[in-house]
Amino acid sequence: MRLLGAQELESHEWEPWQTYAFESFKNKLTDRKNPFPCIPAVQGLSLGHLRFVFVDKPNDALDQKKLAKILKDYSLGYKEYGKYTSLIIFFNYVGSFDIKDYEKLFWDQLTLLHRLDESSWPRHISPDPEHPTWEFCFQGVPYFVYCATPEHRHRKSRSFPFMLLALTPRSVFNEFRANEKHAEKIKAQTRKRLAAYDEVPIHPSLNTYGKNDNFEWKQYFLPDDQGVQGKCPFKHKW
After folding, report:
1. CA distances (Å), 86 to each of 67, 167, 179, 189, in order?
2. pLDDT, tens only, 79-95
3. Residue 48, Cα to own-chain centre: how many angstroms?
4. Strand partners, 87
């Protein structure tokens, strides 16, 4: 398991599931007839700013530690990868899972990564998920986390053949929104694309970080319907 950029992908020794996962991801983000809603992600792929990792054995203790090490390395070096960078994690989960199972797997993975984090939680980020400043942090870096699964059938923007996580540093969004007029234009285009892409309405939990009525954790794993989650499953290690 290693962190892969454009050059590393060329020399990577592919397993069949990895080839399928990466080609599915690339096709999803480069589809011009049905454009993927997240414009920064599309730009990140085209510019080579994204970084990738394949987790062959998600429940294996050694692979979990390797993933935490990769996330640490990414957190320390992401500013060198480009303004549209994100870390894309493909999980090779094999089994009969429904969407609730994937939701539990997602929060278990996020909690496990947190427990393997050697750094302190940033002082300016509340440790309480019910506070509007909370978001997942690793190595002192705040992240927005996106999850897609095979069991998202109607919310196509969250549908993928494997469980997929995309971790985007908060500073990437801050850079992207530096030009307020441009940011509002892209936000409107994203919402328009999202409404056309999904078979269900835009989820009510989607909001803007920093607003008093915004809760980031509710946006990480969206349900396939319009249901709203209750209590955040994320467990802090203190």
Report:
1. 15, 6, 20, 20
2. 999 999 999 999 998 77
3. 17
4. 51, 167
Q: Which helix (H) or strand (E) holds 167?
A: strand 163-169
* Residue among 229, 227, 93 at smallest CA distance from 165: 93
Q: Which has the closest alpha carbon to 135: 102, 163, 168?
A: 168
User: How many Å apart are CA 18 and CA 30, to the nearest integer?
Assistant: 18
What is this structure's pTM? 0.94
Q: Give me the long-range contacts of 117-120 (CB less than 8 A, separation at least 24).
A: 117/68, 117/72, 118/72
Spatial CA neighbour of 141 closest among 116, 171, 115? 171
Q: Which of 93-97, 105-109, 131-135, 202-206 has the lowest mean pLDDT?
A: 93-97
CA 10 and chain centroid, separation: 23
Q: Which pair of tokens denotes residue 152?
A: 């998202």
